[in-house]
Every structure is written in structure tokens, then in C-alpha cells.
Amino acid sequence: MLVLSRDGAWLIRLERLAQKGGWPFEARAALPAPGRTPPPERALAVLDRALAGKSLDKAVSALRGLYPGVAIVLSFGASEMDHDSVTAAVSCGADEVVGKSWADDRLAAKLAVLRDRSLFSQTRLSADGALKAERRAHRVHVKARGRWKELVLDAGGFALLWRLLEREGVPVSREELGDSLAAAAGREVEAGTVARRLSALKKALAAWPGDIEIARGGLYRIVSAPRRRR
Fold this sequence. Notes:
This protein is an alpha/beta fold.
């Protein structure tokens, strides 16, 4: 959760709710500056209406440009939350509006729903920038000769790829991959199924210069091809 506000009490409150939910938390007293690479795991941004200033549209647009996949929430003080203000806030491109005066239970529930929704719309990109997976659409693309080409994967293949891309370069156990495959299939899978499905996934990714490597102890990892020096 990224919270953009100068309201100390509000920041403390949201940090406490984030801790209870087990969410990473970051607070900033100003809008992020363009030109810096944002953290890839950002899922929820809470923007204080007071910090956005008069150009609310521009503030939301700039935030959306830096973090395309996040849910953007505008927070209002009790005196600011009238019908016209809320209508204008939602129409400017924000996903939702919350009130600082809301009870903790109501606030936490709303933020959890928005965060989960944004996580489902995440896009994973390999380190070499040539393999892209879109979680909400369950679509995979490989870049070849400067153009994106879609690869057709079933739900199981996508689940394996997504889990590997989540931890690119880090070994993932066969058991963990089996859990992802079982969740996608809606049933338990046999011990040898993971290895067979990974072999099929590796073939499906043949156009990508990276690879799925097998390590000792039933571990697998996905790695991008090293970039060539110019």
C-alpha cells in the first residue's frame, strides 16, 4: 500500500491497518516524481484529496501513469466528503473514494477488496522484457523482432508460468508449483504431472530466449537470457 498524504494521524492509522492485513506499507508526503521506476508489486495507492490540490485530474492521471495496475483510492476528510466532491473524484479516474472518518472495519474491508481486485489485473514482465503475462486476461505474449506475439496457454500452464515469473531467478519447489497447478485445475494433481506440464510449458516458450531450468531437489526456476552487450 502506497499512501500519499501529509496527515500524520491518517498515515499512522493506515499503517496499522496494513500491518494487520500483512501488506507492505509506504508513505510519501508528495506525489511521486516521473522518471523513476516504480516498485512492480504496487497494488494499492491511497491519495489524500488535500494533497492532490486543485488539479485532481492531473494528480490521478500522473499516478496512473507511474503505476498502471494499481487501484487508486482518494481519501476525504469528513468536511470534504459531499456528493459533488465524491462524484467529481470518481469521474476523474480514481477507482474508489474512502472517508477518513470511517470505522476501521469498514475502511479495512474496502481497501482489501480494492487491493485484491488490483492484484488480479497485474502484469508480470520477465527481466529481459521479452515475456509478458497478464493475470486478469490469462494472456501471455513473447516479443520477437520488436513485436509481441501471443502464446496460447491453458489455465494450468498459465498458473505455472505466473508462479515462476513471480520469483524469476529464484528456485521454486515442485510442491509449490503443484499447489498452483491444482488450484487452476480445481483438483489434486499426481506427482509426475508438474514435471510433464513444465516440459510442455518450456516447449510453448520456445520463441522466448529465456529458459525454465531444473535444479537439484525438485526445484525449478525461470531465467531471462542475458542481455547482449552492444
